[in-house]
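Example record

One chain of 146 residues, shown exactly as stored in the release files.
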Amino acid sequence: MTSPGCPICAGHRGEGDLVAPVVWRDDLVWVKHLVNRPMPVALGHLLVETDRHAPFVDSLTDEESAAVGRAVRDAARALRAELDVDAVHAMVINTRLEHFHEHVIVRHTGTPTEIPWHRVDDWSDAPRGGPAEVADLCARLARHFP
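Predicted structure tokens for this chain:
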């Protein structure tokens, strides 16, 4: 189900500001690399989002909940396998979008301790990449999904 005015639906159709490289998807969830920021972007910031309009955790069906959980776990495992990281964090904050989405972000090895866990993308020395590097990382991460 897609809605013409929904920015996430537009991104799923390959349109608009939220188009992002897809790591993996099934009928219920998408795993994408965040790129709607100035390039080069910090490598290793993924989004797990529902295919269906379901904006909040309590909006998810049992099947969607299970699919999101597996996708977040697989994303974390893939990121650990493909990047040099100290930690993988997950966070859910939704104030305006019609699809549940969970951020799965890495804390690269060497990130200074004064950089808070939720601001790791702001570290100026974090490994970064443009479209080619993000696409390469997505292809490598995809190998870790079913």
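Notes: The beta strands are 22-25, 29-33, 41-42, 45-50, 85-91, 101-108, 128-129.
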